[in-house]
Amino acid sequence: MLNNDPATPVDCAHKNANSSTDNSIDSYQLTIMTERNHPLAASVYRPSTKASNEIKVAVMIAPATGIKRQFYHNFATFLAEQGFGVLTFDNEGIGESLTTSLAKNDASLISWGRHDMPAVLDALQYEFAQASYHLIGHSAGGQLIGLMPNYQAISSVFNVACSSGQIKNMTMPYKAKAMGFMDAFIPLSNLVLGYTPADKIGMGEPLPRGVARQWREWCNGAGYIQTALGKTVHNHFYNELTMPSLWLGFTDDEIANSKNIDDMIRVFPNMPVEKHYLDPKGLGVNHIGHMRYFSRKTYAKAPQLWQMAVDWLNKDH
């Protein structure tokens, strides 16, 4: 997590070129140190028209497995244009947070939730000291919240395509593809290469072997991380999370289908849940699936989808 010295909680902060065409957004890069003493690459988006103490709502966007923070750039820019402070990041071993050879990286899904996400939340609080703090989780970014020891700082959760990813609940032919990836490609590539080159089959960035191994184990059980509770995960906060949450899914998402969303929700027994499961065709969009909620093209056709996040963040949570 962050350095305990309040004067230097984030290393190597520097400003980049303005990221907004109307000059209303300031964007710059951060390096955030975790308790594992690993540097995470992060980006901050802030409305340039507001002083720091005028930003009342700040958001960390927690990414899906193997997805770089640049994927969320357009969405983060949009939120900053609405007056929110935003922080995006690369998990350890992904994108610019890969600082060694991938075969030597020992990151895991557990370390992402227990060390990376808490460090980012600390950085968000430092960057926007007068705000309330919210998490927008994409897939794994919403699944791992219960591992965060500083979860109490989060006022609300907005989860997109977040589910258990249980293979049993998928339908053919995608189910066969998922089984091949999880049960053959991951163990074989981990054995031969020491990591999983998920990018070779269109599944995001190459993954540290520990991440890929846990991903496989958890998607082959019920409740995702619930598979590991009491076994490899002994300390967690899933039963203690009571902040309000909105779970957004789409009928053409072959991973986060309705059964798998419900399978993940039950791992958060005390979290108030509002679930929206939408048909893209009814929104005038051909396909959203697991990834395209954050696409600028999707926003152009169905701006109400991003507005849902704005409306949620503006609620008095």
Secondary structure: elements and pairs:
Elements: E1 11-15, E2 25-33, E3 39-47, E4 57-62, H1 73-81, E5 85-89, H2 109-127, E6 132-138, H3 140-143, E7 154-160, H4 174-193, E8 195-196, E9 207-208, H5 209-219, E10 245-250, H6 258-265, E11 273-278, H7 296-301, H8 304-313
Parallel strand pairs: 4-5, 4-6, 6-7, 7-10, 10-11
Antiparallel strand pairs: 1-2, 2-3, 3-5, 8-9
Helix pairs in contact: 4-5
Task: Describe what you observe in this structure.
By secondary structure, the chain is an alpha/beta fold. It has one domain (11-169, 224-313): Alpha/Beta hydrolase fold, catalytic domain (Rossmann fold, 3-Layer(aba) Sandwich). The protein contains eight helices and eleven strands. It has helices at 73-81, 109-127, 140-143, 174-193, 209-219, 258-265, 296-301, 304-313, and strands at 11-15, 25-33, 39-47, 57-62, 85-89, 132-138, 154-160, 195-196, 207-208, 245-250, 273-278. The strands form two sheets. A nine-stranded mixed β-sheet has the order 1-2-3-5-4-6-7-10-11, sandwiched between helices. α4 runs antiparallel to α5. The longest helix is centred in the middle third of the chain and has 20 residues, at 174-193. The chain is globular, with a radius of gyration of 18 Å.
In short:
The protein is α/β, with parallel strands linked by helices and 317 residues long. It has helices at 73-81, 109-127, 140-143, 174-193, 209-219, 258-265, 296-301, 304-313; strands spanning 11-15, 25-33, 39-47, 57-62, 85-89, 132-138, 154-160, 195-196, 207-208, 245-250, 273-278.
